[in-house]
Amino acid sequence: MKMLPRFAGVALLSLASTVVLPAATNSSERQGAVPAGLVYFVRPEFPEWAKVNSVCRGAATVAVSWDARGLPTDVVTVETSSPEFGAAACEAVRQWRADPALRAERFYEFQFALSGVVICHQKGANTLATEAKADFKRRVLTREDLDAAPKLLVQPMPQPADVAGGRIESGRVVVDFFVDEDGRVRAPSIVEATAPELVEPTLLKMREWRFETPRRNGRPVLFAESWAIEFKRAS
């Protein structure tokens, strides 16, 4: 008698789609649109992990730091329904290019969907596909949410005498950024600057900053910061 093998796996026939929009934009208004300000755009791939595990929906929000040429210098996941969706979003954004003449967004939201799914299980197995909740909206942590404020260990800064040929006597910049689980500064963005010449040197130096590992309930976490930095030529 010929015996047929028994399978408890999952067969997927699917069509993956990803909607990308600035995080503050109404999805009904921008469904499927290419975000404004981009001259080269790549959509994320639906994660293979999600297909294999029957995760049919997912979401992620990423923060991007852009340079003056419109290149993404850093991309970090700030919210996600699963790490694999965040990784897929970051991989795509690293390939984007923005128009330097336009202001590209700092935050982008991704909605992943897998349609046309056929689930095939061994009889008696659970036949329901797992879906990530679209309304996950995990709150981004701030310094007040941490067990203790992490100390700044390394802080190189540009000197006014070294910027713009020494023509700048003093200045001030306000920068928003994230500190990741390893204490590194991620996706810094200048929101205010008294002298445009201070922007790029400040962002460049901030990539070298290091904090103590930020923790919440003893576990390493990512959190958001906003600093005002004063520059003054040494007398």
Describe the structure.
It is built from 3 helices and 14 strands. It is mainly beta and 235 residues long. The chain has 2 domains: 15-138, TolA/TonB C-terminal domain; 142-232, TonB (TolA/TonB C-terminal domain), CATH 3.30.2420. Strands 1-6-3-4 form a 4-stranded antiparallel sheet, covered by helices on one side. A 4-stranded mixed sheet has the order 7-14-9-10, with helices on one face. A two-stranded antiparallel sheet has the order 2-5. The longest helix is centred in the middle third of the chain and has 11 residues, at 83-93. It is flat, with a radius of gyration of 22 Å. The model is unreliable at 1-14, 27-31 and 119-135 (pLDDT under 50).
- Which band does the percent of strand residues land in? 25-35%
- For the terminal residues, how far apart are their CA atoms? 95 Å
CATH superfamily of the largest domain: TonB
Number of domains: 2
Major sheet attributes: 4 strands, antiparallel
CATH architecture of the largest domain: 2-Layer Sandwich
Radius of gyration: 22 Å
Shape: flat
CATH topology of the largest domain: TolA/TonB C-terminal domain
Helix fraction bin: 10-25%
